[in-house]
Write a structure and sequence with these properties.
With 88 residues, this protein is mainly alpha-helical. The chain contains five helices and no strands. It is 52% helix and 0% strand. Helix 4 crosses helix 5.
Length: 88
């Protein structure tokens, strides 16, 4: 998250109004809901993890054990269980 000086992006009238409520503090202004993107969607990380999980489920269906999958993918046994037993 980068910080931007309010006085460089907000009109003076709005800045004065905000100063009635907050002065000298860091203020987080969230994105609009329509512009919010899920984690990993920009970098492609979500897609990579989804593909990995699909491969783990397929290997489990073909008889690979949970401990073998944990070792192969460097994940905990509990994490592998969550992946192979999730409903969707």
């Amino acid at each position: 998250m980068k910080y931007v000086k309010a006085e460089s992006v907000l009109p003076q009238s709005l800045l004065s109004e905000i100063q009635k409520y907050v002065q000298g503090e860091t203020l987080y202004i969230p994105k609009e809901k329509e512009k919010h993107q899920k984690w990993g969607s920009l970098s492609g990380s979500r897609r990579v993890i989804d593909q990995r999980n699909k491969a783990i489920k397929a290997a489990f269906s073909n008889g690979t054990t949970i401990p073998e999958l944990a070792e192969e993918y460097y994940l905990s046994i509990e994490t592998i269980k969550k992946i192979v037993y999730q409903k969707r």
